[in-house]
Amino acid sequence: MTVVVVGNPKPMSRTRAAAELIARELSGSAPSAVVDVVDLGAGLLGWGDPKVAEAKATVLGADSLVVASPTFKATYTGLLKLFLDQFGQGELGGIPTFPVMLGAGLQHALAPELTLRPVLVEIGASCPAPSLYLIDSEYATSPDLAIWLESARKYVPAAVTP
User: Which residues form the domain of 135?
Assistant: First the structure.
């Protein structure tokens, strides 16, 4: 079961479309669930919100994760950070996770590796493949995506791939 987590403040965003495409290409099928963090609203600002707890349970039940964010001020969004802060240290228990960020230009190409990956590892994700950065206007046709998929597919659990 591949789950996509999207940290874009815009619902049904290009980031979400890219993350779903990546999940499909990695596993050979549509993601089993998408947590569009913007839908969790103000419940992210505290602890114990039922919608946030349900989203966490979805993530914790995954065999693999694609965690995606647009690049804001050279890092992932504060919205995504609010959701990731709901997880305790090590709570993901080694779920294979693929950090993905989209941005307008190559000047932030290291952002997913330097900013998103460390917080995912802190909460227990296993990030076996390099993080992926794509130009948001060309994510679907980017040669970088094809190259990355070639190396990342080998890290998707066998139970997830057809």
Answer: 2-155
Beta bridge partners of 2: 64
Residue 6 DSSP SS3: strand
Whether residue 21 is contained in a domain is answered as: yes
Q: Which residues contact 63 (CB under 8 A, 6 or more apart)?
A: 1, 2, 95, 96, 157, 159, 160
Residue 92 amino acid letter: L
Q: What local confidence, expressed as pLDDT, does residue 148 receive?
A: 97
Query: How far apart (Å, rounded) are the C-alpha atoms in residues 86 and 11?
Result: 20
Predicted TM-score (pTM) of the model is 0.95
What is the total count of domains within the chain?
Answer: 1
Q: Are 30 and 23 in contact (CB under 8 A)?
A: yes
CATH number for position 117: 3.40.50.360
- The model's pLDDT over 42-68, given as tens digits with 9 standing for 90+, comes to 999 999 999 999 999 999 999 999 999
- Burial (CB count <10 Å: 0-12, 13-18, 19+), residue 127: buried
**Alpha helices in 71-112, H assignment, sequence order:** 78-84, 111
